[in-house]
Amino acid sequence: MIDYVFGANILENLTTGMYQDSKVIYREYIQNACDQIDKAVEEGLLKQGEGAIKIWLDSDQRTIIIEDNATGIPASLFQRILGNIADSDKKIGEDKGFRGIGRLCGLAYCRELVFTSSAKGEDNESTLVCDASKMRVLIDENVRGKKHTANEVLHAINRFSQKKTNDIDSHFFRVELNDINSENTDLLDFQQVKDYLSFVAPVPYQSSFIYRTEVYKHAQELGIKIDEYNITLDGEPIFKKYTTVLKDSS
């Protein structure tokens, strides 16, 4: 029986190839966080409304951090879950993310991508450091004739580690994008990111939107749940930017 080989180029297709708009990385990581918050609520780890997604931008250090207080990943599962690709247990139509590839999107826009997590009741903090710069070098070599498989590239760029922690009640998942590419400065622009999140993220309506109550009431009548999550950008809550002003084309 032959061995099927997935070339290194498939990693480029799953990063830059799928995510032409760099700001999509926020949507992808937020979707994953929202799914885990839902799971944390179902398991009784969080009460409804306690879930939080915090985003920090550091334009000087060219760093982005996205962290949630959801389930986290148990140390025994961390390497399997983050090491595998397109092997998600999520269900289409129920979960917001489902392909198991969204976490790769950050590789296209930074020098180093770091995932850190801990699950409640554990004294371990697990980390995966991905060398995004090296990935791009190996993919470029592949294009120029020095062939690499996707498996070889992943082994070359991924570094797993664990360390002890005294905070066994902690449960979180954190994504860090370090040294954002110079051509992707928009990812560090507070106003651009805020406007993007207000448009695509599942955040509440602002209180000044007078039709908010009517929207909720109508959704309830239809039996539709409107997903809303507490998302902050540098400590500032994000809301949908709907306004009460109606424009008449006449």
Radius of gyration: 20 Å
Low-confidence stretches: 92-99
- Rounded mean pLDDT is 87
Order of helices and strands: HHEEHEEHHEEHHEE
Which geometry do the CA atoms define? globular
Question: What share of the residues lie within helices?
Answer: 25-40%
Describe this structure in words.
The structure is a single chain. This protein is an alpha+beta fold and 250 residues long. Helices cover 30% and strands 21% of the residues. It has helices at 9-13, 24-42, 75-83, 132-143, 150-157, 190-200, 212-222; strands spanning 52-58, 63-68, 110-118, 124-131, 158-164, 172-180, 230-233, 236-237. Strand 7 (230-233) and strand 8 form a beta hairpin. Helix 4 (132-143) runs antiparallel to helix 5 (150-157). It is globular, with a radius of gyration of 20 Å. The model is unreliable at 92-99 (pLDDT under 50).
